[in-house]
DNA sequence: TCCAGTTTCTTGTCACTGTCCAGATTGGAA
DNA sequence: TTCCAATCTGGACAGTGACAAGAAACTGGA
């Protein structure tokens, strides 16, 4: 349920309300889209008054931005673990993409929040979000760079290929969460491109 | 501004309020995300009371669903026109994808609404949306089928390739609207895959 | 120990929203 | 004309995000 310590004492002060609020909101995000999450419901779940959140988050968007950062971090580490477990350049790129799609399928609301321009604008990412984004881009670029040194992939433009791969994987993740594509179709479709 | 006839007379009855409401909402959608569009603001723009919309749309979601149908129709015809203007299987697939991305870049909020699970759920599409979706899938499948008859593309699985292409194009559209990718990067990235 | 000062939380309030209700207005059919 | 159904209005209610003022609890220094 809660990812960190809950209310420790019954006193006036909560102890770790910031984390408790994020946890409560993350629980809601498992079943509800970010647009439908209300600050007051989150406060209720954390057992505090409707205004307590404003001392830890400037407004509703700030809370959701914090959740977005958590989601992006989870998405990134899912990819890193998958890449670390795979062997060979082709297999590593494949694993990276599948991890991306599978994270989206497992946490559709969190995934949607990470890429929701209303809260996590890519044009002006938050100070916590920006390094995660570049880390993700670097991870992909490094794997693609290794790929184009393989026989059969030589001479490809790393930038263009990275962009194309990210697009494919991201679109696949999106279409899977939208139930436009079944999850099982992701793997063969990805293989159809990577070959 | 308004896409169809506006309020015709000053009388009690509006004349064509349904269309006027959709037009007003579409204007708002050019600059505002669907989540931030309020029924009352739309009614205000159409010059009617806050409750008039309820006689033409059951609730707020119904209005946005109608906008989603309009957006999907526009996205579809943009692709059809692009395909009709192109010659040769490879070029036609390329044109289809570029039209998709360019529509998203030109109307990011409308594009987002079309694929917003809160309003236009793909799992259970509305009666007006469903035929548009299948028409789009058929269009893509037909072009891919023509493509795999070309030398250099023989023997590919049409289903898997269609899914992969749609994913790529959709993800590219998404990343462009999110400003994660510049629009100019779309064309070379697409070419890097289609070759 | 006591006691300011600061942070955290609560209660009260406001404007705005979606939706329901009852009633007024209108256009068309009998 | 008269009646009816469709359309639109105003009022009401609960829920929401946000602001303001005050209570409670933790903090450090005397």
UniProtKB/TrEMBL annotation, chains A, B:
A Pfam family per the record: TetR_C_33
GO MF annotation list: DNA-binding transcription factor activity; transcription cis-regulatory region binding
DNA-binding region(s), residue ranges: 38-57
InterPro entries: Homeodomain-like_sf, HTH-type_TetR-like_transc_reg, HTH_TetR, MT1864/Rv1816-like_C, Tet_transcr_reg_TetR-rel_C_sf
Domain of life the protein comes from: Bacteria
Keyword Lipoprotein listed: no
Classification via SUPFAM superfamilies: Homeodomain-like (SSF46689), Tetracyclin repressor-like, C-terminal domain (SSF48498)
Protein name per Swiss-Prot or TrEMBL: Transcriptional regulator, TetR family
Domain HTH tetR-type span(s) in chain numbering: 15-75
Stored PANTHER family: HTH-TYPE TRANSCRIPTIONAL REGULATOR RUTR, TETR-FAMILY REGULATORY PROTEIN
Keyword tags: DNA-binding, Transcription, Transcription regulation
């Amino acid at each position: 349920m809660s990812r960190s310590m809950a209310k420790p004492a019954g006193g006036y002060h909560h102890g770790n309300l910031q984390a408790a609020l994020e946890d409560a909101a993350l629980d809601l995000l498992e079943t509800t889209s970010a647009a439908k999450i209300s600050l007051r419901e989150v406060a209720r779940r954390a057992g505090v008054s409707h205004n307590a959140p404003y001392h830890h988050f400037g407004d509703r968007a700030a809370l959701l931005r914090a959740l977005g950062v958590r989601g992006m971090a989870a998405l990134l580490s899912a990819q890193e673990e998958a890449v670390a477990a795979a062997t060979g350049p082709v297999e590593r790129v494949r694993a990276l993409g599948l991890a991306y799609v599978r994270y989206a399928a497992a946490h559709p609301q969190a995934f949607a929040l990470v890429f929701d321009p209303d809260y996590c604008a890519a044009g002006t990412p938050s100070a916590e979000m920006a390094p995660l984004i570049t880390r993700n881009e670097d991870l992909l670029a490094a794997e693609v760079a290794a790929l184009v040194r393989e026989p059969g992939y030589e001479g490809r433009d790393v930038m263009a290929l990275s962009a194309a791969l990210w697009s494919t994987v991201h679109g696949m993740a999106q279409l899977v969460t939208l139930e436009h594509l079944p999850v099982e179709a992701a793997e063969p479709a990805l293989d159809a491109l990577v070959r």
